Amino acid sequence: IPGATVYLEEGRNPARTTKYDLVAVEKGNLLINMDAQAPNKVFQEWAEAGGFLPGLTLLRPETTWGSSRFDFYWETEQRRGFVEVKGVTLEEGGHACFPDAPTERGVKHLEELIRCHQEGYEAAICFVIQMEGMIDFAPNDRTHPAFGAALREALEAGVQVIVRECKVTPDGLNMAGPVPIRL
Fold this sequence. Notes:
Blueprint: E1 6-10, E2 20-27, E3 30-33, H1 38-48, E4 58-65, E5 68-75, E6 80-88, E7 90-92, E8 95-98, H2 104-118, E9 122-129, E10 136-139, H3 145-156, E11 160-169, E12 172-178
Parallel strand pairs: 6-9, 8-10, 9-11
Antiparallel strand pairs: 1-2, 2-3, 4-5, 5-6, 7-8, 11-12
């Protein structure tokens, strides 16, 4: 959008086609982190600090189960499970929404999380809202109704739905508080 304030970081790979990475965008009073890799990093830091589940003995990224690769596999002394992390950058009138484009892969992850749970694992999806000050979070049924239906089905089947917003600065992104879910 002409006139939008953006935050860029110079790329380190001389073979890349663009010189800069888009890090954040100002939208009115909001600073929205746009780094697609950031949500997994922020979740991992938060989980390792005890924010996700106290007593973690293992937090392993990128773990394959069935026909999916989940963002994290975790264990405690008595429990084990999988977490899929989704970064949220879409905001409409103070409401955070996901996805911003249809995501068949996202639907597949939810279906696989349901199967994990049915086989005795704990299963969760964590929506990391890459901004702060949101009223609530909801699936974006206008853009991808199948994802919204799959999320509701997953919640009903016992998959935990976690929604956290982040404190965003030009130099960082840190997990902040929970955000209410509107289904």
